Amino acid sequence: MTKKKITNLEKSTIITESAKSTKWCYVNTNNEFEYDGDLFYIYETVKEYKVYNKAGEVEDFTNEAYMDKVLVVVGLNDILSFYNQSYDLIDTYNVLKML
C-alpha cells in the first residue's frame, strides 16, 4: 500500500494550527532574511536558496534562486522553526541568527 502524499495545503494547515504565529519573509541574494528585528542567514548548503549567476561573480548576472521566501514559525514552546516554500522543514543548523 502506497502512502498518500500530503499536499502543500495540508502541510500548511498542520504547521499553522500548531503554531503561535507564522510569517513569510523574503530571502535576499546574500541568503539573509529579517524576522522580528533580527537578521538570519540560510547556509548555501540549503540548495533551494542557493543563488546562481550572482552579481559580482559573473558578468551577466541574474541572481536566480529556486526559492526566495522562508516561513518563520513560532511554536507553542516559543521556539522558531523555518520552512521553505514547499512547507518542508529547514534544519535549524542550516539557519544562523546574526549578531
Provide structural commentary.
With 99 residues, the chain is mostly beta strands. It has one helix at residues 8-17; strands at 19-26, 32-35, 38-42, 69-75, 80-83, 89-90, 95-97. The chain has one domain (8-97). Helices cover 10% and strands 33% of the residues. The strands form two sheets. Strands 1-4-5-6 form a four-stranded antiparallel sheet, with helices on one face. The chain has a three-stranded antiparallel sheet with strand order 2-3-7, with no helix packed on it.
Q: In terms of structural class, how would the helical and strand content be classed?
A: mainly beta
Largest sheet: 4 strands, antiparallel
Strand ordering within the main sheet: 1-4-5-6
Give the total of beta strands: 7
Q: Could you state the order of secondary-structure elements as H and E?
A: HEEEEEEE
**Helicity level:** 10-25%
Q: Rough shape?
A: globular
Please outline the helices and strands.
Elements: H1 8-17, E1 19-26, E2 32-35, E3 38-42, E4 69-75, E5 80-83, E6 89-90, E7 95-97
Antiparallel strand pairs: 1-4, 2-3, 3-7, 4-5, 5-6
